[in-house]
Amino acid sequence: MDFQVRKDGESIELLLSGRLEFTDHDRLHDVIELLETRGVRRFIIDAKDLTFIDSAGIGMLLILQDETEQRNIKMIVRKLHGDVKRSIDLARIGEIITIEE
Amino acid sequence: MAISLAASRVLIVDDNEFNRKSLALMIRRAGLTQIDFAENGEDGLRKVDSFRPDLVLLDVSMPVMDGLEMCRRLRERLTHEELPILFQTALDSDEEQVRCFAAGGSDFISKPIKPGECVARVRHQLEKRKLFTDLANFRGRVERELKHAKAMQLSLLPEPKQLEAIASRYELVLDAHFETSSELGGDFWNVYPLDSHRVAFLLVDFAGHGITAAINTFRLHTLIDRFPMQHVPPSEWLAGLNLALKDVLPTGQFATAFFGILDLHTDTLTYASAGAPNPVVGIAGELRLLDSAGLVLGASRRAVYADRSLRLPRGGCLFLYSDALIECSGPGPDNGPIGQDGVPGLLRGAMAANRARPLGPLLERFYARTSLPLRDDLTAVWIARRA
Question: Where are the domains of chain B?
Answer without folding.
Answer: 9-147, 156-385
